[in-house]
Amino acid sequence: MTVPASASAAPAPADPAATHDSPAALKQKLRRAERMRKLRAMGLIAPLFFFLLITFVVPIADMLRRSVHDTELSTVWPTVTAAMKGWSDRSTVPDEATFAALAKDLRAAGETKTLAVAARRLNYAVDNGRSLVFGTARRLPVNATNWKETLIGIEPRWGQVETWNAVNQASGPLTSFYLLAALDREKLADGSIIKAPEQNSIYIDILERTFTVSLSVTLLCLVLGFPVAYLLATLPPKHANMMMILVLLPFWTSLLVRTAAWVVLLQEHGIVNEILLALGVIEQPIRMIYNRVGVYIAMTHILLPFMILPLYSVMKGIKPHFMRAATSLGATPTEAFIRIYLPMTLPGIGAGALLTFILALGYYITPALVGGAADQMISFFIAFYTSDTVNWGMASALGAVLLAATLVLYSLYNRLVGISNMRLG
């Protein structure tokens, strides 16, 4: 039987790119699968990303903006702030037009009940600036032929260059006043920057005190936490778990409660003094509260777990046979510990010290309750300017200075860690 030519002919091979098993199709499937994997990963981290953006990045950005953004005076005194742009000779007071603009803005602010805003802003830079503004507004005449002589006659401080320099710095929208004040500096009318008067130079000392207390607490936590972490890492699991519960126990109590407990323990007739008296260590109660000693004790107790946990996580990964090998090669236990074990714990020491130090920098409740007036850290003054005086610019500037100093120390820490890792490698 004859087979038709069309039936006997082999079918034409399909295009390799069109088949499901071709390399091009497999690459397309892999790309699609990789894209879906990335989308799923982005979907999983999106809630955390937006949470950090809203609660962390945005507030810090707004803090940095407020430290250099100043529109309080220009909002209530628009005419005089516009006239200040023409103040060319900063060695003398402005011209008659600027004084006339000041009189106009004083009257308008009094009618709109916004004079307190301008008075509050000038009070930051001028001694008794509030009385200057309100006193001038109360005695301001309806009309005058020479506003310059009239305003200087009402309040002689309007004839001082320093007063107009403060008005010029507050004219905004950008200012260096708050950042300079946070560094105990001030800007003169000619643009030069000098050290602030002695009675106003407090913030550098506060910043030094903040870093001193934080560093001291970090060192105390390291000295106390290192043996505890070593014991946790070397004990049998049954005993180590019990000790870990004791380490984590403070987290189950409120920070305010723990701080208040130290107030009770460290007071003149508290438990600590009574025990020392009973043991004969002291003859009369010693002061351990409302001073630097109480701050160190309370903050060390609160921050100690943050040092122990990173140390423990690193020590747990160090194999015991490293020390046995060192001793078998002739090293004493002390030499083996210093030359073998201690360098391997440096990542834990660095992580615990950095975590403890940064947490200590922002402490507010503990120094406020346990420390005295000379023991308050920079967070106390940030809270003071935020809630008591509503000086957001100064509070933001202090926060920005603290953030900058912390970033500098963090970069230094990274460099030191990199150098130590290179030497260990």
Describe what this molecule looks like in 3D.
This is Putative spermidine/putrescine transport system permease protein. It is a multi-pass membrane protein. Residues 1-24 are annotated as: Disordered. The chain crosses the membrane at residues 39-61, 211-233, 245-265, 293-314, 349-370, 390-413. The protein is an all-alpha fold and 425 residues long. The chain has three domains: 21-68; 72-173, no CATH class; 203-424, MetI-like fold (Orthogonal Bundle), CATH 1.10.3720.10. It is built from 21 helices and two strands. The chain has helices at residues 5-8, 23-68, 72-76, 78-83, 96-111, 115-125, 129-138, 147-154, 161-169, 177-182, 203-234, 237-248, 255-266, 271-279, 292-315, 321-328, 333-344, 346-361, 365-370, 378-388, 392-424; strands at residues 185-187, 193-195. A two-stranded antiparallel ribbon has the order 1-2. α15 packs antiparallel against α18 (346-361) and α18 (346-361) runs antiparallel to α21 (392-424). It is extended, with a radius of gyration of 34 Å. It starts with a helix and ends with a helix. 26% of the residues are buried.
Give the topology, please.
Elements: H1 5-8, H2 23-68, H3 72-76, H4 78-83, H5 96-111, H6 115-125, H7 129-138, H8 147-154, H9 161-169, H10 177-182, E1 185-187, E2 193-195, H11 203-234, H12 237-248, H13 255-266, H14 271-279, H15 292-315, H16 321-328, H17 333-344, H18 346-361, H19 365-370, H20 378-388, H21 392-424
Antiparallel strand pairs: 1-2
Q: What does this entry show, briefly?
A:
This protein has 425 residues and is mainly alpha-helical. Helices cover 70% and strands 1% of the residues.
